[in-house]
Amino acid sequence: PSGRKQFYHLSYARDRLRKGKPAAQLTTFLRAWRCETPWIVIPKKIGKFLRCALCEWLKLQVDKCPRTQPELMALFKERLCSHVSVRGAQRLVQGRVQELSPQSNGTKWFMKVDKQDEKATVVPTEWSQLSTPFFQSGERLIVAINGSFYHGLDNLQVHMRTMFEDIEHGSEMQMSTFLLNFHEAVLLEKRGPEELYLGADNTPKETKNKYGCWWCMWLLCVMLINKVPLHSICLMFLLVGHTHDDIDRFFLRLRVAIAGRNYYTVAGLMKLIVDGLPGFNIRHSHLHTVWAWKDMADLDLPVLQGLRRVHAVNFYTHRGAVFV
Q1: DSSP codes joined into one string, 161-176
Q2: Which of 44, 309, 317, 318 is in the most buried spot, having the most CB atoms within 10 Å?
Q3: What is the dihedral of CA 159, 164, 168, 171, to 10 degrees?
Q4: Cα–Cα distance between 288 and 176 in angstroms, integer?
Q5: Are 126 and 239 in contact (CB under 8 A)?
Q6: Is the pTM of this model over 0.85?
Q7: How confident is the prediction for the chain on average, in pLDDT?
Q8: How many Å apart are CA 14 and CA 20, to the nearest integer?
Q9: How do strand 108-115 and strand 144-151 relate by DSSP bridges?
Q10: How far apart are CA 168 and CA 206, in angstroms?
Q11: How far apart are CA 106 and CA 29, in angstroms?
Q12: Helix (H, G, I), strand (E, B) or coil at 153
């Protein structure tokens, strides 16, 4: 993540203090950083989607705090360290799930879903003509890509699902993507998991809302009626502004793979991506169906309160019922 090395020194000093051990001064910490881990670089600039409002506000308060008020500055620094610790704990839990999934013999699947920036993939693209009026203001086909990064599957690592402007982005699009991806993964693996972990952006617009919860309940009911082993679905969300992980790094590699290369059809774009990223096991398909999941509101299903402050929700079946 972006920031200053001083903030990492604060976290280090805080951990040492909790253990009752002395901490090195900032100059010693920086000297050790330069000598021991020079390859760890803190980026100075990051994208707008990777900024955490709380981090930015606390950093601003530390900068603006008068040096004559060390107690107030220490308070802001302590709050920043606490926030970074929560972020680190979330990363450790998600990393543990990603590590255990391939070791579970197919009983645990982890699927992280995120959407690529639409402006990065527009058909057709002729790089030598991008400054012409047609490519600046003409009508072209905007191809959105919903990417899924899997852990725990033998035959699948990355799935790209394309969609056009006729599909409204929101809960119904996201839940339909989840369902189609899960269905195709089961057909490919010829088996299903017992526990499914779904990661997505921490936003109520797409997944973190009542429609996403109802979809999980519905899927578990379908599995229960048909005696399928899947008995648990866990929705996992990282803190807003700290969601950059495997699928985001894949999208960065994707943009590098197609940079400077011309493509005129969606099929040509997909071929460029697959050929340009030979290190990934990639499958791709189109979002051909979006179901009206919001119509489940007519079923008088329970509404979960306080989802905005929750970062993990587990749905599971027990004795013929679905629990949260």
Answers
A1: EEE-TTS--SHHHHHH
A2: 317
A3: 0
A4: 10
A5: no
A6: no
A7: 87
A8: 10
A9: antiparallel
A10: 11
A11: 43
A12: coil
DSSP states of 70-139: HHHHHHHHHHHHHHHHHHHHHHHHHHHHHHHGGGTTTSEEEEEEEE--GGG-EESB-GGGTTSHHHHHS-
- Report strand pairing: 282-286 vs 158-163: parallel
Q: Is 15 helix (H, G, I), strand (E, B) or coil?
A: helix
Which letter, b or e, does each residue of 225-259 get, where b requires 16 or more Cβ atoms within 10 Å of its Cβ?
A: eeeeebbbbbbbbbbbbbbbbbbbebbeebeebbe
Query: Which one, of 105, 104, 172, 116, lies nearest residue 149 by Cα?
Result: 116
Give the tokens for residue 320: 């013929």
CA dist 178 and 198 (Å) reads 9
- Does the pLDDT at position 18 exceed 60? yes
The neighbour count for residue 26, using CB atoms within 10 Å, is 14
Residue with tokens 């899960």: 182
Q: Residues 134-155: pLDDT tens digits?
A: 887 778 888 989 999 999 999 8
User: What value does the mean pLDDT take over residues 164-178?
Assistant: 89
Instruction: Give first-to-last CA distance, the chain, whole Å.
Output: 33
What CA–CA distance (Å, rounded) separates 177 from 284?
Answer: 12
The length of the chain is 324
User: Is 151 exposed, middle or buried, given 0-12, 13-18 or 19+ CB atoms closer than 10 A?
Assistant: buried
Average pLDDT over residues 102-120: 88
How many Å apart are CA 195 and CA 233, to the nearest integer? Answer: 6
Q: Where residue 108 falls among pLDDT bands split at 50, 70, 90?
A: very high
Q: Give 3-state DSSP helix, strand, coil % of the chain, rounded to 5.
A: 50, 15, 35
How far is 253 from 196, CA to CA, in rounded Å?
Answer: 27
